[in-house]
Every structure is written in C-alpha cells, then in structure tokens.
Amino acid sequence: MAVGVFKLTKSQRDILSIIFLVLNMIQVLTGVVMLSMSIYIYVSVAPVLYSERAEISYVFAVIGICGFNNVCCFLFGLKIRLKCLRQAYKKSTRSLVFAWICVSFYIMAYLIILARLTKKVYKHVIRAMGHSFYIGMSKYLKDEVWKVSIDRIQYDLQCCGAHTYKEWHEVAWLDKYHVNVKSESVKQFRENGTWLLPVTPWSCCRVSFPMQCLHDPLQQARSHHVWADQPSLVADSLNTEGCLGKLKVPIKSALSTFILLVVVNCIVQLLIFLVVRILYTSCRNAAILNDPEGVAPGWIFGRGDCGYNRGKTLGDIMYPVRRRRKSDAPRTPDEENRLLDNHDN
C-alpha cells in the first residue's frame, strides 16, 4: 500500500522542484547563520576572556562545524534536484537520494542533541565566568595577564566588577605592597585592619563623565572627602553595571539563536523529506510509464522502496487516467517490479 500518493503533471513536478530548491536554500541559510555566529563569538567575544576562552571557543567551533555541514549537505541538494528531474530512472539516482536523506537526517539529529546540551553548557560557562572574574579581580595587580584582560573587558564594555562596581571594594586586591601604609588616606579608609579599600581600577571610569573620574581616593587625596560627602558623584563617574551581565548577552543571544535555527532546521528538513520523496518517485514513475511529460504518481513510501513490492501497482493507480487517454493496458505487477528494481546504472 502506497503512503501519501499524489498524481502530478509535468508542470506540477517543476513547481515541486522549485519548492525543493527554496527549502534547500533555507537550510543553507540556517547553516550560514550558524557558521557566521560561531565566527563572531570566536573572534570577538572569546578573546576578551581569560579562563573560559577555551570552553567558549570549543562550543562555538562545534556549532560552526555543524553549520558548515548543513551548508555543504543542502548545497548538494541542488544536484539531487537535477538528478530527480533528469535521471530519476537510474538506480544510481535512487541510491544517491537515499544516501542524501540519511545524511541530512543525521545532521538534524546531531543538531538536536547539540541544542539540548547548549542550555547546560551556557549555565556552566556563566558560572565559571563569574567565578574566574572574582579570581581575576583578586589577582589584578599580581598577574599581568589578568590585569590586561580585566581592563580590556571593563573599558570595552563600559562595565565594572562582575555584578557591580562595589565588588572592587569587597575584594582584597590591594595590600601593603601596593599602597603607602603610612598615608593618612590609607589610614582613613582602611577599616578593621583589612585591606578592603574604596578603590576601583581606572578602566571602571565612565568615558562620558565630564569631570575628573573619582576612582581612587588614595591617589586623589585632594578630593577624598567626596567619597564620604557625595558618594552619588563617585558612582556617577564610574560604570556601575557589572561586566558579567554584558559578557553573557552575546553568548546567550547566540545560543538562543542556535536553538531557534535548530527548530527551523527540523521543520524544514521534514518538509524536504516529503517533497524529495514525492518529486523523485513521480519523476521515476513517469519514466516507467514511458510518459515523462505526462501525469505520474509520486508518493512518500510505496512500491519499489526498500524492497517493498506490495500494494497497488502503477496501473492500478493510473488506470482511470489511462482509460481516459485510451492507452495500452497497464503492465503486470511483475513487470513493474522488474522495472522498479532494474534501472540503468
């Protein structure tokens, strides 16, 4: 029994081939977007990180490879379209269509698995990013790599600290080797013998602030009273928003876009499968009926597919049309099975 039978004219097969072409181009476009998105994160976002650079680069490199595979697979679909229209009677075309469908479904399954894992990966990366940012803050003046990395992030993104600028006042990144312990300013701001001082790095300064940036009361001794009298002015001169929120925006957007593309990919893939099956079988059956320009049935699954030789024959399906056209009697089931199984190579 054939499943999903459609009797198509030559013009309808041509229209179906155009639909097949459009669907393939949509898949190619999703692959290009995946690849472009991965390159952007790899080139623009990953380099500004320090300890998570490898993890983020790996995740988006895998997504980029999947996108590239998508592009290659569905560009090859253009050849499948031509083979269906011009050489559907050949056994090689049947094998090629079957192999291409298997590969495209394999890519779809791989994308689904990867999309399922991205949510967990995102949470892990963000947690690790926040943890490492605090480590970097504590090593700001002890490790040049951390200093350069944090300054670059804070200046480029116009942010300060992991979640807020006040975190610099809560991390002991300064000690007796970095300040003059005999300074009156140090004595004034140092509380309970700790080294938690209201100092932030220069990279926290707000570029648009029209006055002097109030980020270091130890070096700006003439203005240190402002920290006590006008704390709001101090905050106005700094970027108060944390860097973690800004760092995760492009990563979250990219992963959300990837998941959306996977959903689109799956829907379009199912449509492609239906279209290519109907197009191929209709073109093949038209050749078997010795009427390439006439009406021929196409189906999703039927006689001649995967060794299946039961159900209605082409004669049974096309009999009303043949009678109207006064054609010869339809072939016997054995003759049709032989034609279906023995195409030219």
Summarize the structure in short:
With 345 residues, this protein is mainly α. The protein has helices spanning 10-45, 53-87, 91-138, 144-157, 184-189, 225-229, 231-236, 243-288, 314-325, 333-341, and strands at residues 6-8, 296-298. α1 (10-45) packs antiparallel against α2 and α1 runs antiparallel to α8.
Radius of gyration: 33 Å
What proportion of the residues form beta strands (DSSP E)?
Answer: under 5%
Measured between the Cα atoms of the first and last residue, the distance is 27 Å
Multimeric status of the protein: single chain
Q: What is the succession of H and E elements?
A: EHHHHHHHHEHH
Biggest sheet details = 2 strands, antiparallel
Counting DSSP H or I runs of 4 or more residues, the number of helices is: 10
Notes on the structure:
The chain has 345 residues and is mostly helical. It contains 10 helices and 2 strands. Strands 1-2 form a two-stranded antiparallel ribbon. Helix 2 runs antiparallel to helix 3 and helix 3 packs antiparallel against helix 8. The two termini are 27 Å apart. About 3% of the residues have low confidence.
Question: What is the strand and helix layout of this fold?
Answer:
Blueprint: E1 6-8, H1 10-45, H2 53-87, H3 91-138, H4 144-157, H5 184-189, H6 225-229, H7 231-236, H8 243-288, E2 296-298, H9 314-325, H10 333-341
Antiparallel strand pairs: 1-2
Helix pairs in contact: 1-2, 1-8, 2-3, 2-8, 3-8
